[in-house]
Design a protein that fits this description.
The protein is mainly beta. Strand 6 and strand 7 (128-133) form a beta hairpin. 13% of the residues lie in helices and 34% in strands. It has two domains: 22-134, no CATH class; 135-208.
Length: 224
């Protein structure tokens, strides 16, 4: 029987799975599968946390249910450290008021950046990734609305004018419901902007905070 050395097997595996940075970048949008285990029909989320939250390249993200089920989202392996277009980790993870929906930013290594930036908003519910949104610029901030049925996002340049692109999406269909832009002169929203956009502007105006280690479902106060 012919024997293949471990070294030759590893080389063959690396060759078969290697892709260019451009191919990695183009392949951002297909979702990364979560664990095959699904929560029960009435399962509610107890908390969400990420491993190694203080590092540029975070560890896995955990969605923990009240019955003890732990659904894990991993960071895809890289061809090489800090490879352009490769995912570095997770940021800005939040739980909706329905306690069934979770969202997070996916951070990526991009050209000419010494740190990863969030480029994709991923939305998860009941064991599956249901939506991934990418506008093309950095995800500055986002929030759930209407009990998890909508999300509000604001995107903008990593460096330069702070004029955001504020977008409101329906989670079920992925359809954009509304869009407003910041004023170039003031680099702020205009006074007649809708409430959901003004709430995001308030978040942007707050001092930057480190990534939270653990996030719990919010209180039962109504969303806007």
């Amino acid at each position: 029987m012919k024997t293949i050395s471990l070294q030759r097997l590893l080389v063959a595996l690396l060759v078969s799975t290697a892709v260019s940075a451009g191919e990695l970048h183009a392949a951002l949008l297909p979702p990364v599968a979560s664990a095959s285990v699904r929560p029960t029909a009435d399962g509610k989320i107890a908390k969400v946390f990420v491993e190694k939250p203080d590092e540029d390249e975070t560890g896995s993200l955990h969605i923990v249910y009240h019955d003890g089920l732990d659904v894990v989202q991993i960071v895809p392996p890289k061809a090489e450290p800090k490879a352009e277009g490769s995912q570095a980790g997770f940021s800005e993870f939040k739980v909706a008021r329905d306690q069934e929906s979770v969202g997070w930013g996916e951070t990526y290594w991009e050209c000419c950046q010494s740190y990863p930036i969030p480029l994709v908003l991923t939305l998860y519910r009941s064991g599956s990734i249901i939506r991934r949104i990418r506008q093309g610029q950095e995800l500055w901030a986002w929030s759930f609305l209407d009990g998890g049925r909508k999300v509000a996002t604001v995107w903008g340049l990593t460096h330069g004018p702070e004029v955001g692109d504020f977008q409101l999406y329906d989670v079920a269909t992925g359809r954009m419901l509304a869009e407003v832009f910041g004023d170039e002169a003031s680099q702020q929203l205009k006074s007649d902007a809708p409430n959901w956009a003004q709430d995001l502007q308030e978040e942007l105006d707050k001092p930057a905070r480190p990534l939270e280690r653990v996030v719990f479902p919010p209180a039962d106060a109504p969303d806007r």
